[in-house]
Design goal:
225 residues, 26% helix, alpha/beta, 7 strands, 7 helices
Length: 225
């Protein structure tokens, strides 16, 4: 595994800040590497001191003062993270197999090309679109439709999306309903609409408009009312 000794980690009494993970970097390698920059009010810690040794110093950070907490943290296994080329982080678990955080466009191609199983569980980011200036500005970070359809229709398996709120669940269900079945107002059997004015230029003849209700009926012939 490559040594990333040039990465910096800053430490103060309230928080630990790690540099962004890169492909092939595990938390274990970051933990054991030497720290090149340390900030501490007491000046007690040495820049050459390893991360592991600092964690053994009970007075360096208040949360580690309790022995039970120390033992609890040390018992948590470290998981190797795979940073995908298009974005997102994938990791293997014993319980449900691969889990992926972030779903950029065409993300399952990364898993296939890297020889990894395509995940069945995806964690949807709170920010579903990239808001940072640069070439990725506006990119959808929650492109969940294709992974879900691939898992369900091709692999004949269920796909699980983990979201942060009931509102996010409602919005995602609404998107799935429209992308899979079409707009709700074109599949309402009680008050069907053939089309809507906002979809057409005013100069386009109404008699030439398609009947979306009948067209979508071809895709939902067995749908229960």
């Amino acid at each position: 595994m490559a040594d990333h000794a040039d990465d910096e980690v800053s430490l103060n009494s309230n928080e630990l800040e790690f540099p962004p993970l890169r492909a092939g970097v595990t938390m274990a390698s970051m933990r054991d590497q030497n720290i090149s920059s340390i900030q501490h009010d007491s000046g007690f810690l040495s820049p050459q001191m390893s991360f592991k040794k600092r964690m053994q110093m009970r007075k360096s950070v208040a949360i580690f003062d309790d022995k039970g907490i120390q033992e609890g943290y040390s018992s948590v296994p470290l998981i190797e993270l795979d940073v995908l080329p298009r974005g997102g982080i994938s990791f293997e678990t014993k319980a449900v197999g691969r889990i992926q955080f972030g779903i950029p466009p065409e993300t399952i191609k990364d898993s296939m090309q890297l020889g990894m199983d395509v995940p069945r569980v995806y964690i949807v980011p709170v920010e579903r679109f990239c808001r940072e200036q640069g070439p990725s500005l506006g990119v959808n970070l929650a492109e969940f439709e294709f992974p879900a359809y691939f898992t369900y229709f091709v692999r004949q398996l269920r796909c699980t999306l983990v979201v942060d709120s009931p509102l996010a669940e409602t919005e995602i269900r609404s998107v799935f309903g429209e992308t899979l079945l079409g707009p709700a107002h074109f599949r309402d059997h009680r008050a069907p609409l053939e089309n809507v004015d906002e979809d057409f230029d005013p100069s386009f003849p109404k008699e030439r408009r398609p009947n979306f209700y009948k067209e979508l009926g071809q895709f939902r012939a067995n749908e229960k009312t």
